[in-house]
Structures are given as structure tokens and as C-alpha cells.
Amino acid sequence: MKVLKYENSNKNDWNNFVLEAKNRHFFFYRDYMDYHADRFQDYSLLVYDEKDKLIALLPANLKDSTLYSHQGLTFGGVLVDTKIKAEKMLEIFDLFKEFLLKENIRKIVYKCIPYIYHLQPSEEDKYALFRNEAKLIRRDISSTIYLDSKGKYSKGRKWSVNVAKKAKISVTLSLEYENYWNLLTKTLASQHDTKPVHSLEEITKLANLFPENIKLYIAKKEEKVLGGTVIFENDKVAHTQYLVNGQEGREVGALDLVIDYLINEVYEDKKYFDFGMSNENNGLYLNTGLIAQKEGFGASAIAHDTYELNI
To answer: Is residue 155 located within the same domain as residue 82?
Structure first.
């Protein structure tokens, strides 16, 4: 077997493998990964077997002699197809260590792909991390609804949804990214002194590249955008990004109505509805107010684990 560093000439092979991976996500396709290529030194790896067949990928970037999988993505472990076996994964990790040592790279920071994104069980990498004495250095929790057995809404969430319905708030699939990003940017600045990770130009570009995966749902009243969310839609999971409720939206429960609509109508046939993480300070701080809102819709926790492997 051999390991090669990704080059642009590998793009088609990379994308074709992602399509067949049992733990795929659309943001592992190169058109998504490369939108922020100017921010990260890409150091993605491809693994080939003895017959020169591609058998695994590792989306990754390099920073300060450390390999990350991947700092520009929410998670990003080894991508494999259904033919991978546990013993082969151990061999792949040995190959990674041998290759990286020759490149004077001494550490891997590895963000596991949460199981809800697996099309089939795919935790061979976690066993390989254990066998290589990797250390768990961070754990975040994401709030997720198992849609086949949804939990009950809290009284507060029920009340808020009913307020929005009585106020005749409409929820629609939209392409109004500019109006939405104006509201999002203003709200994040005033409430959290921060700004969106994606610029308007970036999210618009990505939505155009991945129209089946990136969608905007907004709450409106009399043509005014009150709140909403961007959805990252994968095979089994609908994941919220950039949830926002403007001042007027908070007064009438606009965002809660959007979430209710998505859970019970748009994505009722998905396996999971995921709200994302509520942690800060490398997972050590839990934003209890934020997670309470998500749990109010019946969500419960899954772990996002990050490991450090010294080579």
C-alpha cells in the first residue's frame, strides 16, 4: 500500500470515492473543500492498495507541523467504502505515521465523523486511534432529534410555535441569501460580537455548487425576513447552520416555527435532524441557554470527539 498527497489531478478520483464512501458527506467533495483553500494549507491524503486501487481518503490540512483533519470542516476522519476491514484500517494508520514522519510531521489532530453521518457502521478509525494511543483532547455535544422517534416539545417551544402560527408567519424555501445574511450579520454583531464564518459571497457560491445540499428556509411576515436557518442536507441528516431570529422574529416565535416546519414536514423522512453544537472553550463550556432551546424540541446529545495522535 502507499500514501499520496492530494494534487489537483486527483480531483475526479477523490470525488468519485467520496460518492461511494460509507461515511460520506457532501462537504468532503473538492468543490466544497477548496472554496477556502486560501485559508488552509491542504494536506489531504489518498491511500492506494497493492493493485493501485484507491481505498481511503483523509481530508486534511497542515499547520505548524501538525496535520489536522480538517480545520475548515466540522469533522473529517478517514473516508472508506464498505469493503474496509478493521485490520486494514490499522495498516492505513501505520502508513500515515510512516509517511508523515518522512515529512517531519509529528502530530495528527483528528476530528471523528459522528455516527449519525455513517451510511453503514464506520468506526474502524476509532479503534485504530485507540490502538495507537491517541488521546481524547476535546468533546463537544451536538443536539440531535432521531426523527423515527421524536421527543416531545417543551411547553415553551409549543407556546412559541403557536404564537407564530397565530401571527400568520410564513415559512418558505428561499434564495434570498442577501437579505438573510444582512439580518444574520446584524444579529450576530449585536448579540455575540461576532460574524458568520461564511461571507455572503461564499455561502452563495456554495449554495449554487450544491443546490441539493445547501438550502435556506426563512420566516417572513409581509415580505420582511424575521428569521430562519441554512440547512446542510446529507443522506440521512438535516443539519441547521446559521439559525437566526431578529428582534421582531423573537417577539412572534418566527425561528421556532421554521424549526417546527422543518422537523415535521420538510425532513420527516430523514433519519436525524441535527442542531449542531452548543459548546465553547474547546468543549469545556456548555452554553446552557442555547442547548435548552434545542432540547426543547426533543433533541438529545451526540458527541463530536477530537483526538491527538503523536507519531
So the answer is: no
